[in-house]
Amino acid sequence: MYKTNEKLNPGSLLSAGKARQDFAETVNRVAYGGERIVVHRRGRKLAALIPLEDLALLEELEDRRDAKAARKALADAKAQGEMPIPWTQAKKKLGL
C-alpha cells in the first residue's frame, strides 16, 4: 500500500504555521482521509502526522524487533553459560 521510499505528494508536506492555522482540518485529513502529513519549518522536516492504523503497525514492528533482540540476548547469555536475572531481583538491585 505505502512505500517508505516514495516521494511525498505535494499535499503531504505542510508548514508548521499552516498546520497550526488549520489544525482541525489537518487532523481530519489524517484521521478520516488516511493521509500522512509531514510538518516542516523553514524547509526542515520536523514531525509527521499519521493515522492510528499506521501507528499501530509501527508499534507492532517495534515489538517484534524488540522480542527478536531479547531472544538473541537470552540465547547469547545461555551460550556463554550465563543465567538471566529474575525481574524481581533486578528491581531490587536497581532500587525500583
Helices and strands in order:
Elements: E1 13-15, H1 16-21, H2 23-33, E2 37-41, E3 44-49, H3 52-79, H4 87-94
Number of helices: 4
Low-confidence stretches: 1-6
Strand content: 5-15%
**Outline type:** elongated
CATH superfamily of the largest domain: YefM-like domain
* Termini Cα gap: 44 Å
Q: Count every beta strand, where a strand is a DSSP E run of 2 or more residues.
A: 3
Architecture of the largest domain, CATH level 2? 3-Layer(aba) Sandwich
Write down the CATH topology of the largest domain.
YefM-like fold
In CATH, what is the class of the largest domain?
Alpha Beta
Strand order of the largest sheet: 1-2-3
Instruction: Report the mean per-residue pLDDT as an integer.
Output: 89
Order of helices and strands: EHHEEHH
Number of domains: 2
Task: Please provide a written account of the structure.
The protein has 96 residues and is of the alpha+beta class. It has two domains: 10-50, 3-Layer(aba) Sandwich (YefM-like fold); 52-82. 55% of the residues lie in helices and 15% in strands. It is built from four helices and three strands, in the order βααββαα. A three-stranded mixed β-sheet has the order 1-2-3. A hairpin with a 2-residue loop joins β2 (37-41) and β3. The longest helix has 28 residues, at 52-79. The chain starts with 12 loop residues before the first strand and ends with a helix. Mean pLDDT is 89; it is low at 1-6.
